[in-house]
Each structure stands twice: as structure tokens, then as C-alpha cells.
Amino acid sequence: MLDEIRRVVIVGVGLLGASVGLGLRARGFAGEIIGVGRREQTLETARRLGAIERGETKLAKAVSDCDGAMIVVVAVPVSKFGEVFSSLSGHQRPGMVITDVGSTKGSVEADAAKFLSMPQFFVPAHPMAGSEQSGPEAGQADLFEGRPCVLCPNDQTYEGALAHVTALWELLGAKLFTMSAEDHDRQVAAVSHLPHLMAVMLAMTAGEMGPLDLASSGFRDTSRLALSNPPMRTDIVMANRQPIGEALDRLVEVLGEIRQMIHEGDADGLLERLTEVQKRRADWEDQRG
Fold it and tell me: What is the DSSP string of 91-157?
């Protein structure tokens, strides 16, 4: 299916965007890969690393003069999607498929409906991969290998567009899931967005309680996500604030239950809860393979 694609345009060549380009090249994609960004230095870095063939600061130039099918991968902060879609709208045509790597899908789907002239050719996607690092230097050709990637087509999505985006992520080695934008946002609030906020809360609390001289591997591992890009994370939280708020409410309830067990000296109850969660966590690890 990707043999029909003559060009991939990656809008935003940071960690995820660069990894898309590196992964496509490593897996034999023969078409042209163009990067779009605001900073020429970043585009040059991505080109030097092999993530793109050339860079453009103007999106219109990147998507013009292509005589075949094209996939545009939007890899910018979710707060910038409306701006990108608005710029793309006048250049849309049959044969141009648009997808993304955004961490929220409800807000992205709404922006597509509002700003794209042909939203049926947009297939929302979220590869569950990344790190606390950023920039094209952090890109990895195998970043998506074996990782979940969620596709969120709706009733208006063109089947051919879905087929091309499916082929893209399969080539990159992702394990595909399909669900609605609403289901996606609710699930990632618990398994992706909440863990980041918990890492922030842990680092904040530990720092306020005293020096970190004795902090070691446990603190390092559990607070790693607090190193994530603050503007990007703020964008994500604001875009998915209702599901995240619900996840935080449940977390507060669980913290209250654990606190009560400790306050009352309920060792049996605490042991039961720790054992239950240990098994659940181990089962998840086993299922990942």
C-alpha cells in the first residue's frame, strides 16, 4: 500500500517526527521525505541525521509539486493543530492523506472538522512511544517497534486514507488498535497523562520535604517523566483536561484509602492491596512480551 505514496511530509521534526522519518528510511520506504519546521537549524539537524531529505519552513511549499499520493504527518503540539490544519486546508486534494502523532484525539478531531476542507482524508493516530527527551537528536528508527498505536477513524473517514495510515504504522512496527477518540482520551488519561502528573507531584513533594541527597534509583525511575517538556505537557493536559480530571479524582480516592490504612495501622489491608497491585502489574508486563 505504501508503494503508492510518493512523498511523506512531516510537520514538526522533533523526537516523534524525526523518528517517523528515520523509521521509514530504515524500513525501505522509497519515496521522498520532507520536513517542515519553524527553525532552519532544526530542519538541518534532522536532514543531517537522515530523518528527512530536505526541510521547508513553509508548509505550502512542502505539499506542492507532488505528482502522486502523499501522506502528511502532523507532529506538532496539540495546541498548534488548528494552525497547521488551516494552512493545509487550501492544498488538500484526493491523494493527500493526513495523520498525526498527537497525544489527545478529541481536540484534534474537532480541529480537523473545523479547519480542514476535506476532513474525511484525516486519520487521527497516537503512537504510544516517546521519552522525556526532545528534538531530532532524540529520534530513533525503532522508536515505534512493538509499541501500541491507536487509530481513531470516524464515520466520515475515507477507507483508502485509513488503509494508507494503517500501512504507514505497520511499516514502522507499531501494534495497532482502533477506537473512538472519546475512548482513546479516557484511556490515555489514566495510563499516559496521569503517570506524568504523578511523577511531577512526586518530584515536587520530595523536593519540598527536604534535600534529595539520598535519592537513588527508586526516585530516578518513578520521577523520570517529570523531565518531559513542560510546554508540550501543559498542552496535552489542557486538551484532555476532563478525562484527566476524572483520573485525578480517582487517584485522590485511592490515596485516601492508602492513607487511612497507614493511619489505622492496617497492615493486613495494606499487604492485600500491595499484593493485588503487584500481580496486576506483573500480568501487564507478561502480556507485553
Answer: T--TTEEEEE--S-SHHHHHHHHHH-S-GGGEE-EEE----S--SGGG--TTTTTT-EEEE---TT-
Identify the burial level of 75 via C-beta atoms within 10 angstroms of its C-beta, where 0-12 means exposed, 13-18 middle and 19 or more buried. Answer: buried
- Is residue 14 helix, strand or coil? coil
Q: Vertex 98, ends 93 and 100: CA angle to 5°?
A: 165
Full set of structural domains in the chain with CATH = 2-179 (3.40.50.720), 184-288 (1.10.3660.10)
Q: Report which secondary-structure segment, H or E, holds 17.
A: helix 15-26
Distance CA 254, CA 240 (A): 21
pLDDT computed for residue 182 by the predictor: 97
Rounded CA-CA distance 123/3 in Å is 19
Determine if the pTM surpasses 0.85: yes
Sheet holding 122-123, edge to edge: 54-56, 32-36, 5-11, 69-74, 96-100, 122-123
**C-beta neighbour count of 152 within 10 angstroms:** 23
Q: Is 248 exposed, middle or buried (0-12, 13-18, 19+ CB in 10 A)?
A: middle
Looking at residue 287, what is its pLDDT? 87
Contacts with 119 (C-beta within 8 Å, 6 or more apart), sequence order? 112, 113, 156
Please report which helix (H) or strand (E) contains residue 189, including its range: none
